[in-house]
Recover the amino acids of this structure.
């Protein structure tokens, strides 16, 4: 058994939460880092994402959310980074998938990436745990629907097509938000073509407040609900404009603002929809300034967890 103890592992825990302990952690939510960036197209560095997000999360102090009036600190534990090989994508996925499946069977898991290639593995694990394909709410500048990774079969921009082909997702439950990168039409329109919905960054320009975004939120909610599937949130930090999140490997100007993304997360993630987990990927601290990117990433993760706690509280009331 190879022990991958030499692989990069980031320090600290998210938002001052405790380290997960025991075979079955008591906390409802678990955080784990996947410090892998071996499948990036352009600039590497996302392996340092989990460390930077955890570091930035310390700014949340007691982490009491001003909208939801909950703090996740007591309902969250941090598994640290998974021990994974940093040799090949195939080897990393083979090690990640059984570990992810074990953790997902125990807790509502939030994953700190890492590049976007990890999401295919996380969807495979979720598909196995829930016994059915997922609806996916996908924030990104990139459609990630390319049929190959510059000649390689798989990379950080192919996982959507792979997930559809493997039956991991409900096509009608695929919703993309913030898409704007250069791409041939076949890739850009892929999700629309299979019955999902692509909200381009251009379509969302000028819509920032919850009231302005209400029609978009209603459309997304209806699609996720109609899919009758567990919902997974994958948030590529490059959905944000580089002005808000410069620390990423493939920045694309013309993106969403922090307020836009947080408005959408606040509205959607607090709804009575069966969310089963999230990842936040592509935070690459070597290109960050003033921890802007790590900060908004930590805020998005925190917002998601607090929104789900608020949704659970409403369901009980
Ligand atoms: Mn992207």
């Amino acid at each position: 058994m190879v022990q991958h103890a030499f692989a990069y592992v980031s320090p600290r825990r998210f938002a001052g939460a405790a380290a997960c302990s025991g075979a079955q952690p008591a906390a409802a939510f678990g955080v784990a880092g996947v410090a892998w960036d071996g499948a990036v197209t352009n600039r590497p560095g996302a392996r340092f994402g989990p460390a930077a997000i955890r570091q930035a999360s310390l700014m949340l102090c007691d982490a009491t959310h001003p909208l939801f009036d909950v703090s996740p600190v007591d309902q969250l534990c941090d598994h640290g980074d998974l021990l994974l090989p940093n040799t090949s994508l195939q080897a990393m996925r083979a090690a990640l998938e059984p570990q992810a499946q074990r953790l997902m069977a125990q807790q509502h898991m939030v994953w700190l990436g890492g590049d976007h290639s990890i999401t295919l593995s996380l969807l495979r694990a979720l598909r196995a745990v829930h016994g059915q394909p997922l609806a996916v709410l996908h924030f990104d500048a990139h459609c990630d629907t390319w049929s190959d990774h510059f000649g390689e079969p798989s990379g950080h921009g192919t996982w959507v097509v792979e997930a559809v082909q493997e039956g991991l997702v409900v096509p009608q439950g695929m919703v993309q938000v913030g898409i704007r990168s250069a791409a041939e039409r076949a890739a850009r329109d892929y999700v629309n073509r299979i019955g999902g919905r692509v909200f381009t960054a251009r379509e969302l320009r000028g819509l920032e407040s919850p009231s302005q975004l209400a029609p978009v939120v209603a459309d997304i909610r209806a699609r996720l609900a109609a899919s009758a599937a567990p919902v997974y949130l994958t948030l590529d930090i490059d959905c944000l404009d580089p002005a808000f999140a410069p620390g990423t490997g493939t920045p694309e100007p013309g993106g969403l603002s922090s307020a836009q993304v947080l408005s959408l997360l606040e509205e959607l993630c607090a709804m009575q929809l069966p969310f089963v987990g999230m990842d936040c990927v592509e935070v690459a601290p070597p290109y960050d300034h003033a921890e802007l990117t790590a900060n908004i990433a930590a805020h998005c993760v925190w917002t998601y967890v607090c929104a789900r706690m608020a949704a659970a509280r409403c369901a009980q009331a």
Summary: The mean pLDDT is 95. Residues 292-316 form the longest helix (25 residues).
